[in-house]
Amino acid sequence: MPRRRSVKLGLTIDHIATVRQARGGSEPDLIEAALEGIRGGANGITVHLREDRRHIQDEDVFRLKRAISVPLNLEMSINEGIVRVAAKLKPAKACLVPERREELTTEGGLNVVGEKGRIAAAVDRLQEKGIEVSLFVDPIPKQIQAAFDVDSNFIELHTGGYANAKGLIRKRELKRLREAAFLAHSLGIGVNAGHGLNYENVKPVARLPYIQELNIGHSIISRCVFVGIRKAVQEMCELIKHV
Ligand code: PXP
């Protein structure tokens, strides 16, 4: 493996849509936010089209795909209606996540082992449309093995356990992420990671072996309130590029 790598940033902009939905109008403009993030160095734009449409709307994903020059990554559940939208949209990438109506944000990885049939069918339908598929999973070996079994191109390792932990427990969580990255790589699966990453905790994750891309939203959008999106993205890129 090369000594110094550049980890890519997928900028998650759901929170921009959350602010817009608070008043139901068109401000702040989602497309302008994405373009500013790209000017700051984001390598991709990620949005989660939730079943309840609480922030991102169907027309947003189509407008975004037309407007941006970097890959669009659609986070999505395997709900039939959402898979249909994705098949029509044909984003460059889709990341399958579990979804519960009452959750504040995605709370855990997919149970690929328990829902293998349904997940395999969704992976197939998306890949048929030329979409690269990733499965959001906890760093658990049997889930990664199952991601291989359903032919996923990538996994996105759920870093929430690491991000919420402190001290020795954080170290242990980092070790689990490292072992998971090794396992996925040995199976020929690409490795991304995300959830709960911020300016303080991101570097050790960016330095993990085989990590290609980090998807980060909350901390960057929080920071952009004070410095603007372009600068908030630049600051994150400085931390994760050339690790
Ligand atoms: N990756 C996945 C699969 C997610 O569901 C989320 C949250 O939307 C993120 C990454 C980004 O997490 P955060 O907003 O905590 O940076």
Describe the structure.
The protein has 243 residues and is α/β, with parallel strands linked by helices. It has a single domain (8-238), classed as Aldolase class I (TIM Barrel, Alpha-Beta Barrel). Helices cover 47% and strands 17% of the residues. It is built from eleven helices and eight strands. It has helices at residues 14-23, 30-39, 58-67, 80-89, 116-128, 141-149, 160-164, 167-186, 202-206, 218-227, 229-240, and strands at residues 8-12, 44-48, 72-76, 93-96, 132-137, 154-158, 190-194, 211-216. It has an eight-stranded parallel β-barrel, surrounded by eight helices. Helix 2 runs parallel beside helix 3 (58-67) and helix 2 (30-39) packs across helix 11 (229-240). The protein is globular. The mean pLDDT is 96.
Helix and strand arrangement:
Blueprint: E1 8-12, H1 14-23, H2 30-39, E2 44-48, H3 58-67, E3 72-76, H4 80-89, E4 93-96, H5 116-128, E5 132-137, H6 141-149, E6 154-158, H7 160-164, H8 167-186, E7 190-194, H9 202-206, E8 211-216, H10 218-227, H11 229-240
The structure holds pyridoxine-5'-phosphate.
Mean pLDDT: 96
What is the terminal separation in angstroms? 13 Å
Q: Supply the CATH architecture.
A: Alpha-Beta Barrel
Number of helices: 11
**CATH topology value:** TIM Barrel
Largest sheet report: 8 strands, parallel, barrel
Beta strand %: 15-25%
Name of the CATH superfamily: Aldolase class I
Text of the CATH class = Alpha Beta
Catalogue the ligands: pyridoxine-5'-phosphate
Q: Biggest sheet: strands side by side, in what order?
A: 1-2-3-4-5-6-7-8
- Could you say how many structural domains there are in total? 1
What is the CA-atom radius of gyration, in angstroms? 17 Å
Q: Helicity, in percent?
A: 40-55%
Shape by Cα distribution: globular
Q: Give me the count of strands.
A: 8
**Would you list the SSEs in sequence order as H and E?**
EHHEHEHEHEHEHHEHEHH
Q: Briefly note the structural class of the backbone.
A: alpha/beta
**Unreliable segments (pLDDT under 50, ≥5 consecutive)?**
none
